[in-house]
Amino acid sequence: MIDSTRVFLWRTMLKIKTAPGQMIFDSVVAIVSMLLFTFLFGGAISGSPREYVQFLLPGMLFMTVLPMTVYSGAALCKDISTGVYDRFRTIGFWQPAPILGTLIGDVLKYAMAIIGVVATGLAIGFRPEGGIIGLMLGMLLVTFYAFSLSWVFAAFGVVAKTPDSVAQNAMLILYTSIFASHIFTDIDTMPSWLQTAIMFNPTTHVVTATRLLMQGSYHSLLPAILVCVGLVVVFAPLTFIIYSRKDR
User: Fold this and answer.
1) How far, in Å, CA of 212 to CA of 118, rounded?
2) ∠ CA 79-95-85 to the nearest 5 degrees?
3) CB under 8 Å, gap of 24 or more: what pairs does 129-136 form?
């Protein structure tokens, strides 16, 4: 089981090594977006870019990595649609390994993008009150949530007909998750009905916990972890079941 997963993890790493363009593009877009949001809206929202970046950076990490979680499902769908999946089924290894190896390998992409955004934020004035420990814990929580959410799109990937359809079907969930949260602005500034609606968004709770971690507080960490674990518990077995029964 472990050896099989390691093989497919290495396969994903080789894809990144031989074709790093997408990861580089995502990292550059993340850095540019961080700069644009900070300097375009910082003065209007918080009075100055330096003040706004203290609030924005934790949320911007989610804006950066959540769209990348769709790649896992698209990669699985590509293997299935091109017939690679059929070859895997004829080989005697642990069959969930292609899924697990792909999703674990994509964590590297999330980590690289997160590091780029954090480095940019530190360069323009972000100073986490929780110090290096709070910053690292916040980054780990964002990565864990991205990994958890990638299982949702992995399930999409094993049932979709083409990789493009994975992205198309994921957009509604993805952008609702991002924009129906308090990534960019304080939830207290919103109408009460909108605050109530946003609290039903899982991303809201993880963003809250990430901000607090970077401020040196562990308050709200448990709900965030439960959200991440819940996504994995529900969608990981579902993905494996659909994948194992496909075309049987």
Assistant:
1) 16
2) 20
3) 129/214, 129/215, 129/216, 130/213, 130/214, 130/215, 130/216, 130/217, 131/216, 134/213, 134/214, 134/215, 134/216, 135/214
Nearest CA-CA partner of 235 in 162, 154, 173: 154
pLDDT class of 71 with cuts at 50, 70, 90: confident
- The stretch 6-32 carries a mean pLDDT of 74
Residue 79 to residues 66, 103, 226: CA-CA distances in angstroms?
Answer: 22, 14, 31
Share of the chain above pLDDT 70, in %: 90
Chain segment 149-193, per-residue pLDDT in tens? 999 999 988 888 887 888 887 888 888 888 888 888 888 888 888
- The answer to whether the CB of 62 falls within 8 A of the CB of 202 is no
- Of 201, 206, 200, the closest CA to residue 225 belongs to 206
Describe the chain by its helix, strand, coil percentages, rounded to 5. Answer: 80, 0, 20
Burial class (CB in 10 A: 0-12, 13-18, 19+), 132: exposed
CA distances from 60 to 37, 165, 179, 214, 245 (A): 9, 26, 11, 13, 38
Of 118, 140, 138, 115, nearest to 127 by C-alpha is 118
What is the pTM for the complete model shown? 0.89
Instruction: Please say if the pLDDT value at position 89 is more than 70.
Output: no
How big is the chain by its Cα radius of gyration, in Å? 19
pLDDT, tens digit, 9 for 90 and up, residues 210-221: 999 999 999 889
Closest CA to 145 of 114, 166, 169, 167: 114
CA 176/CA 183 separation, integer angstroms: 12
